[in-house]
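ligand=fe (ii) ion
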Amino acid sequence: MSKVLIDEIVNGLYILRVNDEDIKYFEALWSIPEGITYNSYLLKTSTGYILFDTWKHHYSKLFLESLSSIVDPKEIKYIVVHHMEPDHSGSIKEVLEANRYKAIVIGHPLTKMMLKSFYGIEPRFRIVRDGEVLDIGDKKLMFIHTPWLHWPETIMTYLEDYGVLLSCDAFGGYSIPSTIFDDNREVVKSYMSYVKKYIANIIGYYRNHILRNIEKIKKLGLNIKIIAPAHGLVFRNNPGRIIDYYLRIGKAEPLDNKVVVIYGSMYGFVEKAIEYAIEVLRKNGIKPVVFKFTDKEQTSISDIVSEVIDSKAIIFGAGTYEAGVFPTIRYVAEVIKHKVGGGKQVLIISSYGWGGVAGKKLQDILAPEFNIVDVIEFRGMPSKDYLERVKKALDRLIG
Ligand SMILES: Cc1cc2nc3c(=O)[nH]c(=O)nc-3n(C[C@H](O)[C@H](O)[C@H](O)COP(=O)(O)O)c2cc1C
Ligand SMILES: [Fe+2]
Ligand SMILES: [Fe+2]
């Protein structure tokens, strides 16, 4: 597949999409072997062109070339900045230079300040209020403030003439779908798991704002026919599907009996009790999703957060390590508390050599957000009595 995809979404509205296959860790943090796309949009009006966002700086040259295949950058009259995170704003300086700073930049009040501090630029700027409608040539644009999706300055644009919502990060997802639109069932199906991972990793901490902003958009009573986000698929067949999916994941709604097991084990002591727990779960008809950190296997924390967000219960396993929690699991527990939070059942299993502290310390990390069913901590290998306690705790975990 070509790296750049350009298409006309509706008459006069173009998508410019780049497939980022070079990236390994989104935000230098989240492992995404599946890649990601950056979607910019361009609208033709009777008074000139409006550009909505750009691409990451890594692709600024390619962005200018792609943009120039549709319009001379000097002809761009307005640039709407939906979000200042540099995966979208990263090429704006290059565009403005090619444009000779003729365009008026449109955005949230904070965006003006951020353009200066991020890129040292002070272009002509038009602040838009929440719900403000601008007539630009023959087109009507409504700007909606959508704070914390994903930053405080984030806005969306509703193109009234087409029923298109340019939603930026919201309603987007990871991966490089083989199509631009949600036309193919199989493409949409495999894409959705990357949407979940994206929500959990990127907007998880602000998940209440997903619900708040969707509620706000619904109240506006817009006739949304197409959702065009800044990452991933454009939804024109079933825009309701991506909205409902965001609502479900935003609520961290548990799937029936979904249990995630996350453990680290240096020499197999914790693993013994974890394997027993997995066996008991399987006997009860539950297939847990297991992530392990051992001397043979290390797993993706991005995937863990994604699997946890729609789980019912989580089992953590970690031994005591230098008077603390085995470090990787401590980090994973902190990330899960931060990104997911909220009410899931948790069982903690731990082992120690001479003085156990990991169980209690994990409990201290997780207790404010989660419902801790039990903390089972044993010296070295778990005895039969401890395994019996694991079994009893599992009844409460999934009961
Ligand atoms: C690097 C290292 C540090 C450890 N630090 C402690 C410690 O501070 N306190 C303690 O009681 N045990 C400590 N232990 C012992 C382990 O907690 C104990 O062997 C436990 O059973 C390990 O379980 P695992 O092999 O499943 O990781 C340490 C072990 C290792 C390898
Ligand atoms: Fe973002
Ligand atoms: Fe983004």
